[in-house]
Design a protein that fits this description.
Two copies of one chain form a homodimer. By secondary structure, chain A is an alpha/beta fold. Chain A folds into three domains: 13-66, lambda repressor-like DNA-binding domains (434 Repressor (Amino-terminal Domain)); 71-168 and 304-337, Response regulator (Rossmann fold, 3-Layer(aba) Sandwich), CATH 3.40.50.2300; 170-300, Rossmann fold. Chain A is built from twelve helices and twelve strands. In chain A, the strands form three sheets. The first copy, chain A, has a six-stranded parallel sheet with strand order 2-1-3-4-5-11, sandwiched between helices. Chain A has a four-stranded parallel sheet with strand order 7-6-8-9, sandwiched between helices. A two-stranded antiparallel sheet of chain A has the order 10-12. In chain A, strand 6 (189-193), helix 9 and strand 7 form a beta-alpha-beta unit. In chain A, helix 10 (232-243) packs across helix 11. The interface between A and B is large, with 74 and 73 residues. Strand 2 of chain A pairs antiparallel with strand 2 (101-106) of chain B, so a sheet runs across the interface. The first copy, chain A, binds a DNA duplex through helix 2 and helix 4.
Chain lengths: 349, 349
DNA sequence: ATGAAAGCGCTAACAA
DNA sequence: TTGTTAGCGCTTTCAT
């Protein structure tokens, strides 16, 4: 047996009005409580009718007249990446407590996909967008901005978009890592860097360089190995090449924890002890880093909180826009969130 | 400097029509290509106008008249749980390839939150809902069903809702685990079971019992320890109690991988060797299970594919409904996806 | 090949 | 306190 209901037409405000014996305006007022006076007896009858008809007001119709969708769009690179999962969890923490809904889409860092997604969100009239996946800025984003959609960046910065951005202290965190590793006596340190068109990764690479300078290491010992995708497999491959070279590093700083996990696997496959033969440090401090058997040293920039802050800011912008009649009065700010080095087992602590 | 654009009113179909010197009906036809003939010259002018005005049709207005939102709702328990992340990734695989959008919300398995979320989605006129977090079925879901919203369950079954469900072979998978563990010679096997109001967990517990029967183990050696929340910490606590008891188990089968990770941590904290002193098996085969240093044996029911299949089915239902003029002709089916035991290090293989 | 007009379900003046 | 009415931006007959 299937759900065989004749599926009678959804009840509308008209049906409610008819059944309650009032005008649709009164029913509308009933829902937009607070601003109107309406007799208790009438209220009763309306409530009754709503219940009986199982009426639910159409957000679509409401949105059309009020010109507000009460929806925000969230764009990430992928769902099965704990970093984005954490970020969205943070966004959800704040959005879930409001009457806004989230429409979410992933773009796999594909500019074309991003353009499509942004366009689709514009059509859906989202009031704001939270972009966490933004490598090359597509013109679609600028258009969205121009059409009155607020935009906030998370874990990304943009040179030509004048919008708020919330991003961890990648440079500082990376420098801290090198400092720490150097403190353990390492001289041959390698950095497995992620795609440099992703700002977080390029900033980490920059921090690595600065850290090496600071520690007096030069390019003969401090090397950077680029990886085209920040994945476990790519990390394993890159680390493998490094480890199999003539003068392998004694410590590897990975672009992020997933890459670090790949490095760990490469070491394990070669029977190398960690941190004895090789020290490893990641970035992002995803929950896995703290798991038994892993104990990966990492840098924590509180991803979930990044999501929360970015979401709050977006909401703030949206509210302000309505309060100020469409104007965009807030200055765009770049917020750098503090990064903390988390020493666990793999760095040699 | 902020994004200071006077934020002129979004262009509407009217503006386009005016600028192109045609009627709005023609512009509308331009977008609903295929069904109408429209002169090439006119097409040109419209395209031009659209470009200049940076016009994007309003999905809201469209939805109001067409009565279709081209949106589906996805309800999960939480984002920062790799299981749901995988599931959503699967859903995204198929939805992302269509012109539907996903509105997502989490409920933390709170019935009240679930009711709110479902209600909100109903207001937003989603055409279908994918429920992956459904412990106690709230009446809201039945209402949604009645109002013509298609519903598909993922990784959950429901006794009183007559809807499609896609769920892994929890019973069979669990039996397989016990069989395997018994094959390794274990007699004292414990199951750290998750909240029993979650069908996946109750089914796994059931499979555990059946497996013990099959292996000739009885309640004196095969024990079940209930945990109120399927988390790492809860798993650690439960395993700790088990391990510190007079006659500790030699093998623990955890409700899922997160709980298993907790078990692993409990063992590690006590200096117990795995699998030497304690064999451990999880469930779900989240990606972490395969990481270096972890090597957790688990049961794989292809979560991502579950998401894909469920999403496909939902889309199928939606299309059918429109093809058949609102009727709901598909029989509700319960799909059991095969579960495969994945032997890694922690089970003793 | 194109346009006029009637709504889709709702909100928000303005009247009564 | 309640009702009338004019749209919100679009699709869709039905004319032309």
């Amino acid at each position: 047996m299937s759900n065989r209901f004749p599926t009678e037409r959804r009840a509308t405000i008209r049906d409610v009005a008819a059944k309650a014996g009032v005008s649709i305006a009164t029913v509308s007022k009933y829902f937009n409580k607070g601003d109107y006076y309406i007799a208790d007896a009438t209220k009763q009858r309306i409530a009754e009718a709503i219940l009986q008809l199982d009426y639910e007001p159409s957000a679509t119709a409401r949105g059309l007249v009020s010109r507000r969708s009460r929806a925000i769009g969230v764009v990430i690179a992928s769902f099965d990446n704990p970093f984005y999962a954490q970020l969205i969890a943070g966004v959800d923490d704040v959005i879930g407590a409001t009457d806004f809904t989230m429409v979410v889409a992933s773009t796999a860092d594909d500019p074309k996909a991003q353009a499509e997604v942004v366009q689709s969100m514009r059509q859906r009239q989202v009031e704001g967008m939270l972009l966490a996946s933004l490598t090359s800025e597509s013109p679609e984003v600028a258009k969205a901005l121009r059409s009155g959609i607020d935009v906030v960046l998370a874990s990304r910065v943009s040179a030509d978009l004048n919008v708020d951005a919330f991003v961890g202290d990648n440079v500082g965190g990376a420098m801290e890592v090198v400092r720490h590793l150097a403190g353990h006596g390492h001289r041959r340190i390698a950095h497995v860097a992620g795609p440099q068109n992703v700002t977080s990764f390029s900033m980490r690479a920059e921090g690595f360089r600065r850290g090496c300078d600071e520690a007096g290491l030069d390019a003969t010992t401090a090397t950077i190995s680029l990886v085209s995708e920040a994945s476990v497999d790519a990390g394993e491959a890159a680390a493998g090449a490094l480890l199999d070279s003539a003068e392998p590093p004694t410590a590897i700083f990975a672009a992020n924890d997933r890459v670090a996990l790949g490095v760990l696997r490469a070491a394990e496959r070669r029977g190398l002890g960690v941190p004895g033969d090789l020290a490893v440090v990641g970035f992002d401090n995803i929950w896995v880093a703290d798991m038994p058997g892993v104990h990966l040293s990492s840098v924590d920039a509180d991803t979930r909180d990044t999501g929360r802050q970015a979401a709050r800011r977006l909401l703030e912008r949206i509210e302000r826009r309505w309060a100020d009649g469409g104007a965009d009065v807030l200055e765009a700010e770049q917020h750098t969130l503090p990064a903390r080095f988390i020493a666990r087992h793999t760095c040699g602590c």
